[in-house]
Design goal:
- By secondary structure, the protein is α/β, with parallel strands linked by helices.
- Helix content is 39%, strand content 21%.
- It contains 17 helices and 23 strands.
- It has a seven-stranded mixed sheet with strand order 15-16-17-14-13-19-20, sandwiched between helices. The protein has a six-stranded mixed sheet with strand order 10-9-8-11-12-22, sandwiched between helices. A three-stranded mixed sheet has the order 1-5-4, covered by helices on one side.
- The structure holds nicotinamide-adenine-dinucleotide (NAD).
- The site of nicotinamide-adenine-dinucleotide has 27 residues, from helix 8.
- Nicotinamide-adenine-dinucleotide binds next to helix 8.
């Protein structure tokens, strides 16, 4: 008989059992079985984590930045020896393939590497002799306690994006990961402790809306980062902002790929397969809409896409030959299947229907074969709403301007890409499209860790993006110091001239 693991919290440098009496279920999406139960924190448990962070923060902030960076570097070393194991754990709870799980971890670690440059990143600005005898400089100081709320679909990457720059800046952190795949975030916290992070600087509270709402209501939390679906992102942003907290909240997406008549069609098709169906479409940067320009492009694209999509292998997430694995849970499977019904009712042409897929030996797993809709229109729900599954919609347009309008006018504005051989078209598209992250002949334009990641419109609430320079801005407040040390010293003292009065307001001319 298989035993069910119990997952609790990580507070004040220790693993803590849940005390609320409430639990969530963690599935093995490959089999459909419950493999663990996770404690859902109540208000008191969440407040204990905030208190621990608040107590630890001043001491941590007093460490010089280089010393703090060494903890991040040590963490990078420690995680290296158990990456394969961690990828397996991630894959077993999420259902993404081992290769995708490795990518999830890798993308997270790249932000830890970026944050390890904190001695350089925190340097303020300085102007000597801004006025007579006056210097001005700025300091970037930590905010205090920062909270991060993360989604199920990147259980390593998103927590690391949220927490690494934050603690590097001298904040203490409370992470509320997704209750659907909480094991990797817990292990990350343990590894940080092992790397020398003082207890309390990084706490992990598992839970659902009670934990989130406690973080939002608590005045000791200075800032909140959220990544998840748009309705919750909006709720978190509005509540946090109304409470005077700094907030950055990233939501859902509907990412388009425009395929111009001059595009390398084979490259575009291969890109669509990976970006549309990879990780079962459970990526915020997944391409869910293909926009071929012109009838000939549309016909050729759909023909090639159909042929290639049919050959995709859906399998157990540990099967190295599988292109993608199961969806995260029964609710996700039901929701995505529901959207396929909606698309059919709306009159879109379902040219590839993955609903019949059953994996021998894993009949209860949450698998769905690749689905392809042709002749989708901008009015349909399957176009307007995020499906978050292995479902690709083709919206055919007659010309470039119509293609440009689709992503620009969509309520989401996370990512977009264009496939073309024309530099002129690519440049115009990049310039005018109303979307936060743009790819040119690149399917998933996730920026490197030292550039900013962030969607526009209802894909992102708040002014600052994730990682890159924005993450330092988000996690610090600027203090500007104007100082004069010329009185009784400097040139006047050396020449025996009069000292400036300390009561005169300095002019900067
Ligand atoms: P979700 O919104 O259901 O959950 C995200 C987090 O919010 C979880 O920690 C969850 O426990 C919490 N939560 C859920 N409902 C809540 C409520 N009513 N009140 C308070 N907290 C609540 O999202 P998900 O299903 O875990 O993740 C998938 C979504 O995340 C997709 O929409 C995807 O596009 C989005 N996403 C966006 C980005 C981005 O950068 N824009 C990145 C990854 C995922």
């Amino acid at each position: 008989m298989s035993t069910i693991r119990e997952l609790g919290h990580f507070v004040d440098g220790k693993s803590v059992e849940g005390a609320s009496g409430h639990f969530g279920q963690v599935y093995d999406p490959n089999t459909g079985a419950v493999q663990a139960r996770v404690a859902l924190a109540d208000q008191a448990e969440t407040e204990a984590a905030i208190a621990s962070a608040q107590a630890a923060q001043p001491g941590w902030a007093a460490w010089n930045p280089q010393r703090r960076a060494r903890v991040l570097l040590k963490f990078l070393q420690l995680i290296e020896s158990e990456r394969d194991e961690l990828a397996k754990l991630l894959s077993s709870e999420h259902g993404k393939t081992l290769a995708d799980a490795q990518g999830d971890i890798q993308r997270g670690l790249e932000v830890v590497e970026f944050a390890a440059g904190i001695p350089h990143l925190l340097k303020g600005e300085f102007t000597g002799s801004a006025g007579t005898g006056i210097d001005t400089h700025s300091l970037r100081q930590p905010l205090g306690v920062v909270a991060g709320i993360s989604p199920f679909n990147f259980p390593a990457m998103v927590p690391l994006w949220q927490l690494a720059p934050s603690i590097a800046c001298g904040n203490a952190f409370v992470l509320k990961p997704s209750e659907r795949d909480p094991s990797v975030p817990l292990r990350i916290a343990e590894l940080f402790l092992e790397a020398g992070l003082p207890p309390g600087v990084l706490n992990v509270v598992n839970g659902a809306h009670t934990a989130v709402n406690t973080l939002l209501a608590d005045p000791r939390v200075a800032a909140v980062g959220f990544v998840g679906s748009t309705p919750v992102a909006e709720h978190v942003y509005q509540t946090a902002s109304a409470g005077g907290k700094r907030a950055q909240c990233f939501g859902g997406a509907k990412n388009h790929m425009v395929i111009m008549p001059d595009a390398d069609l084979d490259a575009a098709v291969e890109a669509l397969l990976g970006a549309g169906y990879g990780s079962a479409g459970e990526r915020c940067m997944a391409i869910s809409v293909a926009v071929p320009v012109g009838k000939a492009t549309g016909d050729a694209l759909v023909a090639k896409l159909l042929e290639r999509a049919k050959s995709l292998k859906v399998g157990h997430s540990f099967d190295e030959s599988a292109d993608y694995g199961p969806l995260i849970g029964p609710d996700a499977l039901e929701r995505v299947r529901g959207y396929i019904d909606v698309g059919v009712q709306e009159g879109a042409q379902l040219v590839l229907d993955g609903r019949g897929l059953s994996l021998a030996g894993h009949e209860n797993g949450f698998f769905l074969g690749p689905c392809l809709f042709d002749h989708v229109t901008a009015q349909m729900r399957i176009y307007r709403e995020e499906i978050f599954g292995p479902v690709l919609s083709v919206v055919r347009v007659d010309d470039y301007e119509s293609a440009l309008r689709l992503p620009s006018e969509h309520e989401f504005g996370n990512g977009v890409s264009i496939f073309t051989r024309s530099g002129d078209v690519a440049r115009d598209f990049t310039d005018r499209v109303q979307v936060g992250m743009v790819g040119v002949n690149v399917a998933i334009p996730v920026p490197v860790s030292y550039h900013v990641f962030g969607g526009w419109k209802r894909s992102g609430f708040g002014d600052l993006g994730q990682h890159g320079p924005d993450s330092i801005r988000f996690n610090t407040k600027t203090k500007t110091v104007t100082s004069r040390w010329s009185e009784g010293g400097g040139a006047a003292a050396r020449t025996g001239g009069p000292a400036a009065s300390s009561f005169v307001i300095p002019t900067m001319q």
